[in-house]
């Protein structure tokens, strides 16, 4: 240790009154709703829509799939309150919305990786408000994906189901996609960087095949079908199509709820780990 | 007035204060007990080698991490409360920006999170980035990104500004403009704490230099005081069995180190040491070198080894 004097502030020298008002903690306000606001929502949406890869992958691919698969033979056969084309339309909307929500979810991990989340922690933004805004953006993007598939389906003119079924299944599908927003956050942490969607894209397509989104499970061999019941797309697909089919096995509901809880827990677990490190 | 109330009043009037602060990461003691009070309007340089604990300390002042023991107070409140009111900002050296947002979007996004902010266009003007407001952040140069970080930090008119190596990559003119702006703000009462490796920059622009090493504050004083510590020279000579006591008793000797057949003496009066070595001993190969900042750090911390094993 050196003999340099440890400078200590003389008590009398501290300014007592000449502090500008704005620098006084008492004169400062907290933001309303923890920083939840429309400016951020608007910018976040614009970012998603500007990303060409997201737009192609999530808005165009599902619609194109519907056009190709939806024209197969037997589209006019009856399923529940509608026909096979309607069944495929709901399935494809679910696939598109799940992919979109997952893409939105991966942004959270990407933003952490580049230090944006740390930057946000230097603002009054409440973490709950942040996640809420991200969830809303995921929901909006999911709704957009569902709308695109529905518009394409209507213009194709093959799908038939009562209007209330049409609307109800769209709404149910929308909320099912939150599962995949959480999955996106989770996978984003496990596989950081630009590669996240390269895993999630094919991964979700595979899960959709397994879960009976593209092809009904009744056409699968018993072995495959027994595996399918356990995969994450199966439950939400059955739930989303229930307004049309009026057929909802209890284990499909259990599947949907369990995977939702699992993905949210996984995302929360990775996020809290990440925060602890920062 | 009791000592306790004096301390409380002081931390209420200070820009920030740390008392008895330690931070452990598992078995690693990153910060080993810091007491530091900074008054409003002070410009303080936080000097120290990498791994000294500067960043860990700054993170605790920002409320990004909690001290293992001890108290941190910012403008008399807890760090997170100060952040929530826009009283504290920080500019980090890298990262913290999204490439796919435009400059204006980045500022508008940040501004929307505070209860009160300066107008976005005004801040863009001040930072000299209004002309590139519609450019994507990823297409901005390093200097432009740094200006953007400053614009974001100044949005809420913070009372305390923390800067990490603020002028890295700036040219001489940029540095001068930057620091005159910082000084003008300090005169209004804004406190600035900046981390740096460079004694020269600390000496030129700070009112006060806090020197940190191995998790402790090893010196705290004006630039002149700290510089005196680094102004000595190192004398190295080949000399078996040197008389360390005799060397130490020479005027102006800070430390004597024996490494095998070599003796290394840190001294303010290197001439006296050299004269002694050449006339009174059998020393040969005498070398005299100016002490760099790294060695100044070492001479300040070299005798602190008992702290490591405790």
Word description of this protein:
- With 278 residues, chain A is an all-alpha fold.
- Chain A has one domain (35-277).
- Chain A contains eleven helices and two strands.
- Chain A has helices spanning 38-50, 52-69, 84-113, 116-120, 127-156, 163-176, 178-190, 196-210, 222-228, 232-245, 250-277, and strands at 78-79, 82-83.
- Chain A has a two-stranded antiparallel sheet with strand order 1-2.
- The longest helix of chain A is centred in the middle third of the chain and has 30 residues, at 84-113.
- Chain A is elongated and about 70 Å long.
- The two termini of chain A are 32 Å apart.
- Helices cover 37% and strands 27% of the residues of chain B.
- In chain B, the strands form three sheets. Chain B has a six-stranded mixed β-sheet with strand order 5-6-7-3-8-9, with helices on both faces. In chain B, strands 11-12-10-13 form a four-stranded antiparallel β-sheet. Chain B has a three-stranded antiparallel β-sheet with strand order 2-1-4.
- The relative contact order of chain B is 0.13.
- Chain B is elongated and about 75 Å long.
- The longest helix of chain B is centred in the middle third of the chain and has 16 residues, at 172-187.
- Chain B is α/β, with parallel strands linked by helices.
- Mean pLDDT of chain B is 84; it is low at 303-310.
- Chains A and B meet through helix 1 and helix 4 of A and helix 1, helix 3, strand 5, helix 4 and strand 9 of B.
CATH architecture of the largest domain in chain B: 3-Layer(aba) Sandwich
Shape of chain A: elongated
Order of helices and strands of chain A: HHEEHHHHHHHHH
Strand content of chain A: under 5%
Compose a concise summary of this entry.
The complex is a heterodimer of chains A (about 280) and B (about 300). Chain A is an all-alpha fold.
């Amino acid at each position: 240790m050196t003999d340099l004097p440890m400078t200590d502030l003389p008590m009398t020298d501290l300014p007592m009154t000449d502090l500008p008002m704005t620098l006084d903690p008492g004169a400062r306000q907290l933001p309303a709703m923890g920083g939840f606001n429309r400016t951020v929502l608007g910018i976040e949406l614009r970012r998603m829509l500007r990303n060409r890869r997201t737009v192609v992958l999530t808005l165009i691919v599902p619609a194109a799939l519907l056009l190709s698969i939806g024209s197969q033979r037997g589209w006019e056969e009856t399923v529940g309150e509608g026909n096979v084309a309607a069944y495929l339309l709901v399935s494809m909307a679910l696939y598109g919305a799940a992919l979109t929500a997952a893409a939105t979810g991966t942004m959270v991990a990407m933003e952490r990786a580049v230090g944006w989340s740390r930057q946000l922690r230097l603002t009054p933004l409440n973490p709950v408000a942040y996640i809420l805004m991200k969830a809303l953006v995921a929901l909006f993007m999911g709704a957009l994906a569902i709308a695109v598939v529905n518009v394409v389906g209507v213009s194709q003119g093959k799908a038939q189901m009562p209007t209330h079924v049409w609307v109800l299944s769209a709404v149910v599908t929308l909320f099912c996609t939150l599962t995949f927003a959480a999955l996106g956050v989770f996978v984003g942490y496990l596989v950081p960087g630009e590669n996240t969607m390269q895993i999630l894209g094919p991964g979700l397509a595979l899960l959709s095949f397994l879960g009976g989104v593209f092809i009904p499970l009744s056409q699968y061999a018993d072995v495959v079908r027994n595996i399918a019941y356990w995969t994450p797309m199966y439950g939400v697909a059955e739930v989303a199509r229930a307004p049309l089919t009026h057929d909802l096995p209890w284990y499909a509901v259990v599947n949907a709820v369990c995977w939702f809880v699992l993905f949210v827990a996984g995302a929360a677990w990775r996020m809290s780990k990440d925060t602890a490190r920062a | 007035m009791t000592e306790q109330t004096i301390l409380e009043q002081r931390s209420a009037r200070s820009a920030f204060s740390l008392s008895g602060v330690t931070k452990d990461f598992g078995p690693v003691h990153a910060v080993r007990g810091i007491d530091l009070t900074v008054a409003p309007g002070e410009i303080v340089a936080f000097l120290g080698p990498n791994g000294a604990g500067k960043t860990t300390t700054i993170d605790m002042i920002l409320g990004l991490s909690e001290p293992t023991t001890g108290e941190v107070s910012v403008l008399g409140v807890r760090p997170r409360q100060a952040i929530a009111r826009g009283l504290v900002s920080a500019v980090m050296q890298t990262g913290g920006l999204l490439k796919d947002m435009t400059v204006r979007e980045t500022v508008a996004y940040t501004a929307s999170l505070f209860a009160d902010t300066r107008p976005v266009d005004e801040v863009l003007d001040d930072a000299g980035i209004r002309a590139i407001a519609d450019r994507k952040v990823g297409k901005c140069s390093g200097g432009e990104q740094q200006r953007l970080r400053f614009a974001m930090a100044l949005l809420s008119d913070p009372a305390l500004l923390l800067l990490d190596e603020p002028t890295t990559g700036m040219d001489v003119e940029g540095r001068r403009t930057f620091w005159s702006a910082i000084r003008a703000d300090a005169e209004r009462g804004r406190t600035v704490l900046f981390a740096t490796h460079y004694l020269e920059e600390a000496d030129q622009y700070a009112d006060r230099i806090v020197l940190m090493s191995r998790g402790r504050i090893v010196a705290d004083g004006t630039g002149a005081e700290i510089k005196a510590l680094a102004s000595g020279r190192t004398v190295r000579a080949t000399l078996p069995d040197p008389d360390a006591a005799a060397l130490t008793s020479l005027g102006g000797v800070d430390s004597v180190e024996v490494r095998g057949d070599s003796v290394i003496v840190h001294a303010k009066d290197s001439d006296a040491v050299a004269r002694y070595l050449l006339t009174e001993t059998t020393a040969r190969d005498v070398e005299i070198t100016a002490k760099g900042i790294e060695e100044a750090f070492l001479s300040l911390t070299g005798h602190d080894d008992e702290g490591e094993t405790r």
